[in-house]
Specification:
alpha/beta; nucleotide-binding; globular; 17 helices
Length: 948
């Protein structure tokens, strides 16, 4: 063909090019400018976001257009960083805004959000937003779905939310919102709303009576884990559509309203861990109840309530610490749907009789710490878990009976059937199809516990898998979905860990991650559970096939070179970032150079970094035989270094790992701690996804196990004083000699370890705080610790000081005296001892409270009164009235001197298969505490008479 014939074709091609470019410029300038502003402010780096028009044929990922206007922005889990631009208010036609699961999306929510007059769905779950929720949110008159949960919002709930007359879903869970629940105007005006999810905040004041009315459509009322006070209003009985009520972990008082009996649709009622009082409520009218939890309140002592036999749909009953007494009628166990009965720490007695027709669905009967004397088995033994530990029946049988042994909850799933040789590298997981990969991970939290199938949770796996396949069947290469129990007590957390495995690949692509996130966001709006995504793995690069049309058009128009340069630059940048991340993952401490401060910011000293391969070798491949314990952090393994030194390796579970900075901070802190009464940090391992701390091995376990008799160590009075002294010295060192000083925040018998000669060592610094600010005598922090040991002043002020540790140590001293848990059967040991002390009587009148095993070594209780005095000084309500730990050390040393013992001498442990109960007589020991009196007096308890 001649050149004259090619010319018309070239002209036609150029005309088509210009027509293509002209037609692509269809979106209004304000939408385009706003998107570009957001792209810059959030550092969006998505391959499909090229060209000048988001609404052209080559649409941008997450952007949906209608009539050339942007109507939806959905970018969950796409790595957004920075603050949301004020330009968000420019999208006049926007109906959906979803930026969920972008943890680095921070800052406040712009007031311009109120300009989105057509917005129907606002979803910002699991981001890092902070500051107040703007009042302007009340201007979104078309809003139906509002989810701001799992952020860091503070301040009050805006009363303007009451203007959202079309709102169906309100979820503000897991923020730091405070103040009262707003009404008139406020939430009482949301008559169409089916969901009020307001748990895990700091809401205070009473639950307003005006919040409820007969015209409300409300299904879910979730107000757990706040600071609500006062009574549950009678008006709650007006909302007859309710199916779920959760008030647990507040400080509600008064009687439970009888109007609850009007709520015949409620399946889940959880009122646990409040201060509700009076008679146990009769809830016969709540005929749909499946899950009932009234645990840990202040109800009057009562026999097992017979009205429970009328709840034919009941699956789970939880009434721990509820002052229940008497015998459980056998007919109760024949309720047809009954699965779990948890009634530990009560005064139930007599015979546990299941009857001949007990429910075939029963999985657990937990009567730990009651007074059950007999157990009647009908025909063959039941095939579910029965717990009668710490009942009289088990004092007779010991641990020879299965029901007298501690139990652990299993998720009930079959084990992986992969060949024994199947294993993955430490940074990958093994799928059910024996495929090593990086799974997409997250957490599922149930809102409605009655639907929480934690033993056969394949229903969750199937539910998620079906949603993934039905939504994007041709696009999502998913092999399998696996869920497992996240917490050792599923009744407390209602949580699962989920892993979604890719099909025939090591990891999902960036596009696949995005589509999975979209599916899970939509699924949580239609199921009784919430997702928290934690997908930290590096996605594969997304192919640019979706942009082919635009690239061809640009290429035809003569811009091929520029596009290639752009792609080359993006590719180089991505490769550099991936390489940097890989280096950081392999050796995250390589470039660590912590800054200094006047208070002595910690640095690593005499602490070794181990490789995963080394620790694997030292523990015989983390053999079960070397598994010596477990906790919320993970498992602890015993190991042996080549030098012969025994070590304890605390290996974090993947779902419970700290962030990198927090892990470094803990190592910095512990590497500066060197004292014979503090567990020494030998080293650490941070490799791939492994986080491990390596400590010296302490052979005799925890003080708690010794107090309860589980360790088999004979634990008399003199040994207890020496253990208290060792723990006090360790704590005094942390407060006054460590650099920087350290507040432990979780002193308890489980965190005091006993060495070879019963030398006490303070352990577990997971909650510890360094005092880095030289000008402050406290640290402001979220309240953490263990109930029963918590300083009440810290709990109310959220300011922790060394005196908070002193309070916990005082509780520990009372535990040493009584052998009882800090909170047992709803009674607080501090209050019980304080109310029982009579200094005019022998042993301060505490005969009935003293642990029998305290007389195990046959010694007199020398210094008993001084020990009690010192403990009560430590648990004074006000921190200023408590002694510093250095004075506590001196006080215990004085007690040992008065007993004729050397405070520097070591204790020699002895073991016994069972404690012998010595008979003793008790002499007076009631002089008040002072150094002078401790030096000048001695107290003697002769071995003649049983104190009980």
């Amino acid at each position: 063909m001649g050149n004259e014939n090619k010319l018309p074709l070239l002209v036609l091609l150029l005309l088509n090019c210009f027509l293509f470019v002209a037609l692509s410029q269809t979106a209004p300038n304000d939408d385009v400018e706003a998107l570009n502003s957001i792209k810059d402010s959030l550092q969006i780096n998505l391959p499909s976001w090229v060209g000048s028009d988001p609404c052209s044929g080559s649409s941008w990922q997450g952007i949906t257009c209608k009539n050339s206007r942007v109507v939806s922005i959905s970018l969950p889990d796409t790595g957004l960083k920075g603050q949301l631009s004020q330009s968000i208010g420019s999208f006049s036609e926007l109906e959906t805004l979803d930026l969920s699961y972008n943890k680095d999306l921070t800052g406040s929510l712009p007031a311009e959000i109120g300009n989105l007059k057509k917005l129907r769905k606002l979803v910002l779950v699991g981001c890092g937003f902070n500051g107040n929720i703007p009042d302007e949110i009340g201007s979104l008159s078309q809003l139906v779905f509002l989810s701001l949960n799992s952020n860091k919002f503070v301040g009050k709930i805006p009363s303007s939310i009451g203007n959202l007359s079309n709102l169906d879903w309100l979820d503000l869970t897991d923020n730091e919102l405070d103040g009262p629940i707003p009404v008139s105007p406020g939430l009482d005006m949301l008559l169409k709303a089916h969901h009020f999810h307001l748990g895990k905040n700091k809401l205070s004041g009473e639950v307003p009576s005006k919040l409820f009315s007969s015209g409300m459509a409300l299904w879910h009322l979730i107000l757990d884990n706040n600071q609500l006070t006062g009574e549950i209003p009678d008006s709650i009985g007006l909302v007859q559509n309710l199916t779920l009520i959760r008030f647990e972990n507040n400080t509600l008082r008064g009687f439970v309203p009888q109007s609850l009996n009007n709520l015949t649709n409620v399946a889940d009622l959880i009122l646990s861990n409040n201060k509700l009082e009076g008679p146990l409520p009769n809830l016969t009218g709540m005929s749909s109840l499946k899950y009932l939890d009234l645990s840990s309140n202040a109800f009057n002592r009562t026999d097992f309530p017979k009205w429970l036999l009328n709840l034919k749909n009941l699956t789970t009953l939880r009434m721990q610490n509820s002052s229940l007494s008497g015998q459980i009628p056998a007919d109760f166990f024949s309720l047809p749907s009954l699965q779990d009965v948890v009634l530990n720490d009560n005064e139930l007695n007599g015979t546990l009789n299941l009857g001949p027709n007990y429910s075939k669905k029963l999985q657990l009967i937990d009567l730990d710490s009651n007074s059950v004397e007999e157990f009647t088995q009908q025909n063959q033994p039941p095939n579910f878990i029965i717990v009668l530990e710490n009942n009289p029946i088990c004092y007779e049988f010991g641990t020879t009976k299965t029901f007298c042994k501690p139990h652990q909850i299993s998720d009930g799933k079959p084990q992986n059937k992969c060949p024994p040789a199947s294993s993955c590298s430490s940074d990958k997981s093994l799928s059910p199809m024996c495929h090593c990969a990086y799974p997409y991970t997250g957490t599922v939290t149930y809102r409605a516990p009655s639907l929480y199938e934690w033993r056969n949770n394949t229903s969750i796996d199937e539910d998620i898998m079906q949603a993934l396949q039905s939504s994007y069947q041709q696009q999502l290469p998913v092999e399998s979905v696996v869920s497992s129990i996240l917490d050792s007590d599923p009744f407390e957390s209602f949580e699962f860990l989920i892993k979604i495995f890719p099909l025939n690949e090591d990891s999902f692509s960036q596009k696949d991650n995005y589509l999975i996130s979209l599916v899970l966001v939509n699924l949580s709006a239609n199921r009784p559970y919430d997702f928290s995504l934690d997908n930290k793995l590096e996605p594969k690069q997304l192919s640019s096939s979706s942009n082919t049309a635009m690239m061809i058009g640009v290429a035809v128009c003569g811009s091929l070179v520029l596009v290639l340069l752009l792609l080359a630059g993006v590719y180089a940048l991505c490769q550099k970032q991936r390489a940097e991340r890989a280096i950081s993952r392999n050796n995250p401490f390589g470039n660590w150079d912590p800054s200094k401060s006047n208070c002595g910011t910690p640095e690593i000293k005499a602490t070794r970094q181990f490789s995963f391969k080394e620790l694997k070798k030292y523990t015989n491949n983390f053999s079960p035989a070397n598994d010596v314990g477990s906790g919320g952090y993970g498992k602890v393994y015993k190991g042996t270094l080549p030098s012969g030194q025994l070590i304890a390796i605390k290996r974090a579970q993947k779902e419970s790992k700290q962030g990198r900075l927090e892990f470094k901070a803990e190592i910095e802190l512990l590497s500066r701690v060197h004292h014979k009464n503090v567990v020494s940090l030998v080293g650490f391992c941070f490799e791939g996804e492994e986080q491990m701390l390596v400590y010296e091995f302490v052979p005799n376990g925890t003080l708690k196990d010794t107090i309860t008799g589980k360790s088999g160590i004979r634990f008399g009075w003199h040994i207890r004083i020496k253990v208290a002294l060792g723990a006090a010295r360790g704590l005094a060192y942390l407060h006054e000699h460590a650099d920087p000083p350290i507040i432990h925040r979780d002193i308890k018998s489980n965190n005091i370890l006993l060495g070879e000669k019963l030398d006490a060592k303070v352990a577990d610094f997971g909650l510890s705080k360094p005092m880095l600010d030289c000008d402050k005598d406290h640290v402001s922090t979220q309240v953490k610790g263990t109930m029963g040991y918590l300083d009440p002043e810290y709990y109310t002020s959220q300011q922790v000081t060394e005196k908070s540790d002193v309070y916990s140590f005082g509780v520990l001293m009372l535990e040493l005296i009584t052998g009882r848990k800090p909170i047992e059967r709803g009674k607080y040991i501090v209050k019980v001892v304080r109310n029982s002390i009579d200094k005019t009587k022998d042993l301060y009148g505490l005969h009935e409270l003293i642990d029998r095993a305290i007389f195990e070594d046959g010694s007199a209780l020398n210094g008993f009164g001084k020990f009690v005095d010192l403990a009560m000084m430590c648990v004074e309500e006000s921190g200023v009235n408590r002694p510093p730990m250095s004075d506590v050390v001196k006080g215990i040393e004085i007690i040992l001197h008065s007993a004729g013992l050397d405070p520097a001498a070591e204790s020699e442990p002895s073991t016994s298969s069972s404690f012998r109960h010595n008979e003793v007589s008790l002499e007076s020991c009631h002089q008040p505490f002072s150094s002078e009196s401790l030096y000048s007096s001695s107290e003697h308890i002769q071995e003649n008479k049983d104190p009980r």
